[in-house]
Amino acid sequence: MKVTYYGHSCFSIEVGGKVLILDPFITPNELAKSIDVNSIKADFVLLSHGHGDHVADAETIARNNDATIVSTYEIATYYSAKNLKYHPMNIGGSWDFGHFKVKCVNAVHSSVFPDGTYAGNPMGFVISVGDKHLYYSGDTALTYDMKLIAEDFALSAALLCMGDNFTMGIQDAVKAAQFVNAKRVVAMHFDTFPYIKIDHAKAAQLFQEKGIELIFPEIGQSIEL
Ligand code: NI
Ligand code: MN
To answer: Quick one: what percent of the chain has pLDDT higher than 70?
Structure first.
């Protein structure tokens, strides 16, 4: 799967000719000034929760591309009221979208839209194409539920939040990688704001000590996972 980083927790994933974009937060992100949101192509927009730093550009991208919003029932219906295409899901549920499958997994966090609308429970995703499986944590604390992911999926990689303060920090992210049994980890939700600035060298060291590859993606960089 070709994965491209757009800053913060936003990635696009190319799967079998379709493009998924996860948690778009581009136009408000000072670090992502090089990315033109209107040039982003997407067939599906996956949203882990309703916080502004995960949904800021969801409507723009969905409308530009006539893309389908995939998220919690509450988030999906919020966008259906804006006449966007949607597929409602919830934690524990899976769906086969034809070119790829999505399983919604637990995240320990909170979730509300910037306008105060209730957004349901936050979640993460396991995205599968054939025997390739990627775990996208969304915003979450470390939780033992992550061990269930390792029981069901042999992951090629995990995209893990690790900026601390609002989510797991780097030490918990190392444990999360062990819980989900990922040997390759892509960092996300770091450095965007002062609260979530992290020490890259320390993170690299902690992951290396456990024999796990850690990738700090550059904004605009594509990685084959
Ligand atoms: Ni959040
Ligand atoms: Mn966040």
So the answer is: 100
